[in-house]
Amino acid sequence: MQGYIYPNEYELQWGLLIVLYPYITGLVAGAFILASLERVFNVKEVQPTYRLALLTALAFLLVAPLPLLGHLGHPERSYEIFLTPNRKSAMAMFGFVYAWYLTVVLLLEVWFEYRKDLVLRAQVAHGVRKWFFSALTLGATDLSERSLRFDDAAGRLITVIGIPSAFLLHGYVGFIFGSVKANPWWSSVLMPVVFLFSAIVSGIALVLILYLVTTLFRSRPVDMPCVDKLASFLFYAMIIDVSLEMLDFLHRLYESEESIGILSQMISSRLFLSLIVLQIVIGTLVPLVLLGVTSPALRRGGVARGTDELRRLIYLVTAVLVEIGIFSIRWNVVVGGQLFSKSLRGLTVYKVEVLGAEGVAITFGLLALPLVILWVLVKVLPPWPDAQARSA
Amino acid sequence: MSAPAAPDGLNRRQFVEAALKACGAAAPLLVAVIRIPAAGGQEAAGGVEAGYDPTGHYYGMGVDIEKCIGCGRCVAACKAENDVPADAAHFNTWVERYVIADDGEVTVDSPNGGIDGFPPLESERGMLRSFFVPKLCNHCANPPCVQVCPVGATFATRDGVVLVDEKYCIGCRYCIQACPYGARWFHPTKRVAGKCTLCYHRITRGLVPACVEVCPTGARIFGEVEQRATPLARFMRMNDVQVLKPHLNTKPKVYYANLDGEVR
Amino acid sequence: MTVKLPPQVPRLAAVFAVAIVALVAVRTALVPATFGKYGHYRAAAVDSIAARPVKYAGRQDCEECHDDIAAQRLAGNHRGLGCEVCHGPQAAHVAAPSEVTPPAPRDRSFCVRCHAYNASRPTGFPQIDPVTHNPLKPCITCHDPHAPVPPRVPQECSACHGQIARLKALSHHVNLPCVTCHTVPQEHKVNPRASRPTKPTDRAFCGQCHDKTATRVAEAPRIDVATHYQRYLCWQCHYPHYPEAK
């Protein structure tokens, strides 16, 4: 502890689990926006990742409430958020936005996308599996042209609804922080927007990683135009994200409000590693340089041709660095907002546990769990482009 | 006719119309989910002490900085009266000491909230001013903590006191983040939010809060903000009063007399 | 034109309808009965908070039985103190007077919490140096806590004005007794706020030592009182207790 903090500020209230939650919903929103690129904006090149992006979004969305429940003092009372939501509280909309997104957007979208596959699998399966897949079809086994066209139209409509829903799912988290006037690090009009764009960045990077890794494990050829397109969207999204963050930074410096003193102290001492090193250098500058060097504009100009293997490697490394950088952003926002006192006179420390309810171990577990769920989903609902071709 | 229709079914427009109608049908149900008054649940009957009318009161507090001697008896009395955890991280009320040096440098400290008083200053050299500032929940008229509670577990009563419903709080700690004054804390075993209750259980029986009762110099003044014949009314008439962080528009109801500009 | 819906729609609609009806039913059953009565909260919570036990009885309750001590206290310097500052929370004693005995602090450490010298305390508050002031003797030996008149009326102003005295002790005015500039009525030592010492009112006062024509205190710095910043009083710039301060 340094300087003066209010006595009640000794203990940090929002720790690793609350850092994790916006990270996970950001991945969900970002993966879904990526999927919508193909469905609504007809970016044909990323078609091979469409189903994978949907399943990724679903897997992570299923895990999203877990860090929240783990953090609550009384998770057994969490249903109260559905009973008596306070209409003035941004946090109160969590239950409804989540339920809406899970059911009306993701589950419905996945259902419409996979209905035909489910019906066909139910037809060829036996015993328990036959029962399982039949149940999933909800009895809608009609595979006529009309029904299939309806599936397609419905999927497109849901995606159109899903885009603002994804904005809401992650944007409201940004608003939860951005609307706290008591905290000068959080209180900002830009917060929901920055959250959203860093979500898009992390979602695209995640799908890029998963596509490359799964294709490698399945020993299939990587669709290079798809991957190049993903990388270029990642690049554009990062440029917007960086611009927004720089705008916030310049604005703070220029206005030089009362909090600038303690916030500068916090950045240069407590947040040096996570902000300067991890978020800015490793998570933003290095990926921007790597993506810039391999971007189509520069490649046409002959700056960095490189082989497909080299580009894949660069993309993979870049995406991993980006994920680390976005996690650092969440950390810097959530934990950073609590490291300085609201008296603006002191700093405190966050003692991260390794084991324990909000520890590093649980965090890794909660990051691994969606991948396990994704593995299960991939077995039940294969997203592979070649598998799709086979079942057609 | 609009876009090419399927031979025996919906075209796109008809599908969208049907979908919108379905949403329209679902919407009242959704509204009902939020608005329907409940029929179930068991609640104990019986209210506050008979004869007490909350609508006849609107409480506030006054603090006279020039009277506070930093003895910390208020901090100890509050912890005793309200079963606040005894450690150094949970306080309904605490006392801060400000030391302003000749060069303008400000040092603030609050050893264990001031509960054991304050040790003497290392050196008085170069000291321009020094004083004690008791702090507590401001029971704001526009409370940001109430605004952010997702479930309605913290609220302002009709008589102007901000309270926490310990049986309903889910422990999300958003209110603790939203309070600009650091007045709230998280109970380590009950795992709900805690804060100063203005000794609601005392003031509804005609007593004063415990901190006011034990203050030896009368630095804390309890009374009503709106009525005319209470100690607080006189305090506000006879002193130039300020509130903490007025720019946040929380409309605090703890009024400080002789407050120095360095106090945050 | 009749519209035949694809089979997906009625099945999905059925699933959603069942879910929504179930949710509404559960919600109706679970919302606490008093919720929303006075606002977006459980009205019963106000009652349970108001029903918490009282630990401090409050001085009115003490006075009901101990009216003699109360009268004594109200006439003296501790008139502003409640009984429970020193005797602790005694609602239990009020409820069962013969079974619960309030403690009475007799140790020095108790009184020095308020009365030990501390520079941050407001000026005029009676303070002593606990190390030198009758060391080891319990305070109550000389001071009755219910009517704490000092056994000897304070000789030195520093008893209550310790911070000023300490500051002056470091300054060039160290050898000036307080009464040089302040006329102190005897009453002030007994009833400080009712009867205040005087302060000088004009420049000529300081000029008695500091004017170039003055003859007292040879080493005092000299200025021409008539011309030196003549629109101001001396103490508007120079702090008399520490005139070196800028």
Walkthrough of the structure:
- By secondary structure, chain A is mainly α.
- Chain A has a single domain, classed as Formate dehydrogenase/DMSO reductase fold, CATH 1.20.1630.10.
- Chain A has helices spanning 16-39, 50-63, 65-71, 80-83, 93-124, 127-136, 145-178, 191-217, 224-255, 260-268, 272-294, 296-300, 308-334, 336-339, 360-380, 385-391, and strands at 2-4, 345-347.
- The longest helix of chain A has 34 residues, at 145-178.
- Chain A is globular, with a radius of gyration of 22 Å.
- The termini of chain A are far apart.
- Chain B has 264 residues and is α+β, with helices and mostly antiparallel strands.
- In chain B, the strands form four sheets. Chain B has a four-stranded mixed beta sheet, covered by helices on one side. In chain B, strands 3-2-4 form a three-stranded antiparallel beta sheet, with helices on one face.
- Residues 1-9 and 35-47 of chain B have low confidence and may be disordered.
- Chain C is mostly helical and 246 residues long.
- Among the domains of chain C are: 56-103, no CATH class; 105-176, no CATH class.
- The longest helix of chain C has 23 residues, at 8-30.
Give the arrangement of secondary structure elements.
The complex is a heterotrimer of chains A (392), B (264) and C (246).
Chain A: E1 2-4, H1 16-39, H2 50-63, H3 65-71, H4 80-83, H5 93-124, H6 127-136, H7 145-178, H8 191-217, H9 224-255, H10 260-268, H11 272-294, H12 296-300, H13 308-334, H14 336-339, E2 345-347, H15 360-380, H16 385-391
Helix pairs in contact in A: 1-2, 1-3, 1-7, 1-8, 1-13, 1-15, 2-5, 2-15, 5-6, 5-7, 7-8, 8-9, 8-13, 9-11, 9-13, 11-13
Chain B: H1 12-35, E1 59-64, H2 73-82, E2 93-101, E3 106-109, E4 127-136, H3 144-148, E5 154-156, E6 162-164, H4 174-178, E7 185-186, E8 193-194, H5 200-203, H6 210-214, E9 220-224, H7 231-238, E10 241-242, E11 254-257
Parallel strand pairs in B: 1-11
Antiparallel strand pairs in B: 1-9, 2-3, 2-4, 5-6, 7-8, 10-11
Chain C: H1 8-30, H2 43-50, H3 59-65, H4 67-74, H5 83-87, H6 91-95, H7 108-115, H8 162-169, H9 187-190, H10 203-210
Helix pairs in contact in C: 3-4
